Amino acid sequence: MDSAMKKLNQVVIKLLSFMAIGLFLTACSNNLPTLPGASVHPSLTANPADYKYLIGPGDELNIFVWRNPEISGTFIVRPDGMVSTSLVEDLEVSGKTPTELARLIESELAEFIRDPIVTVTVEGFIGPFSEQVRVIGEAFEPQAINYREDMTLLDVMIQVGGLTEYADGDNARLVRVVSGEQRSYKVLVGKLIQDGEIEANVDVLPGDIIIIPEAWF
Question: So what's the pLDDT on residue 142?
Fold first, then answer.
């Protein structure tokens, strides 16, 4: 009996200790300063109707210099948006199309090679954050998606696997940067993918954020 009481007292003491620690952490967190809101970064795509893929950190670039295999090769874009090639170091590539980058490399290589001809192809597409479509909340697989030409809400939801059973799809929000300001729009994800109301489908643009809340039962 004494042994059982001793164990019970130990459990109670541990629970009280955890509660005290929790209260202490809560009090400390309430006194911490609040960080300013995240910087607003509009999409680098000026006209979605003329969408072209833009290079971003993490992309794998195949840079081919005609008649110069020794300086051709595959290069990874660094987290700072720069890339270092065999002859040119710290070349800023993020936000450029492959064609724009090819012309830039040609101008840089002209110092070393006569009339260089460069071709750039991208493998392992990632792109800049400003061009990705991000889905958070009660999607089956929340993730950042590479924007594709003429992408719609339905395309995005297919890629994230639809809604979870706890999702309040018809109270979802789409956040978009318009004229340098973040604006929120209501999107009826539930009606679209659960009820099949195709009228609820809308165009998605580079940089959009889709937030799907949890339902209150």
Answer: 98
Residue 103 lies in a domain: yes
What is the domain-level CATH number for residue 82?
A: 3.30.1950.10
Answer whether 142's CB lies under 8 Å from 83's CB: no
Contact 137, 182 (CB under 8 A): no
Predicted TM-score (pTM) of this structure: 0.80
List 121's β-bridge partners, or say none.
62
Per residue in 95-122, pLDDT (tens digit) is 999 999 999 999 999 999 999 999 999 9
How far is residue 49's CA from residue 47's CA, in Å, rounded to a whole number? 5
CA nearest 118: which of 130, 105, 136?
Answer: 105
CA–CA distance from 97 to each of 49, 82, 102, 105, 150 (Å)?
A: 16, 14, 9, 12, 18
**Per-residue confidence band for 195, with pLDDT thresholds at 50, 70 and 90:** very high
The answer to whether residues 137 and 200 belong to one domain is yes
Which of 93, 123, 153 lies at the terminal end of a domain, its last residue?
A: 123
- Is residue 23 in some structural domain? no
Backbone angles phi, psi at 108, to 5 degrees: -75, -40
Q: Is the dihedral of CA 158, 160, 164, 169 positive or negative?
A: negative
> Which residues are CB-neighbours of 111 under 8 A, at least 6 positions away?
none
* DSSP per residue, 104-144: HHHHHHTTTSSS--EEEEEES----GGGEEEEEESBSS-EE
Residue numbers of the domain that contains 83: 52-123
Total structural domains within the chain? 2
| Average pLDDT for 173-192 | 96
